[in-house]
Fold Carbohydrate ABC transporter permease.
Amino acid sequence: MTTSPTWARAAGRAPARHPVTGRVSSLTYVLLCALLLFALGPLVLFVFSALKTQSELATSPLSFPSTLRWSNFATAWEQANMGAGLLNSVIIVAGTVAGVCVISGCAAYAMARLDLPGSGTFITYLLVTSSLPTQMFLVPLFYLWTTLHLYDSLFGLVVIYWGLFSPFATLLLRSFMMTIPREFEEAARMDGAGELQVLFKVVLPNALPGFLTIALVTALSAYNEFLFAVTFIQDSFLLPVSTTFFTFQQGFTQDYTLIGAAGVIMMLPMLLLFLALQRRFIEGVSASGLGGV
């Protein structure tokens, strides 16, 4: 009985492995393509609807436009006064991001670094408040904001957003600050630095990816928020861009081609911002320990 060489036995086993590897690789690509279609399919149809006429959209909503109606974007921009809406949204987003970064930054530093009594209770409080439905705050806030003369003002809406988005931002930033080595702060204290100097000169520079993450998440949330914006802003010149879709309602009908065009215009600024900062955003989420949640 002859024994086959080692290279012959290895060659005999090799072909059995390649089909399995090929099947696994093909299945992976099929799943990725299906997820890509699931994510981009509605977006592509939304863009198609923005380039059609109203009659074409009603007869063939899923088809490619027969004639590209680029004029829908100009009509939507003028009819909904989207220039003023985008400007109001920029003011709201900038004020919200600045306030949330200050509030959550101070709170996260205190929870992550200072020996505070009842810190676990405070974390539980933040978890509970961030999970509560926002609709339950509408009625008491309406009466309070009317009394404080904050109703129908951009600043009043920004203050509401501070309260809405700060709890989650504090939890995320606290998780990020827990990963910063304490040796940096101890070395600064040995050199005579106080708590504020440690915060601004040591902790904050090392926590910039975390701040960028909460800034991007807060900006997206404030830019897309609709319920509080339409409830607490009545002046048409102060409405953010997320409320412009009411303009295209005519009686009981709506012009969905103009809604699609306005939606594409509204989506582009945040899409470009996320694409520009996506690497920093992913790094911040991963470093905060929430990447696997």
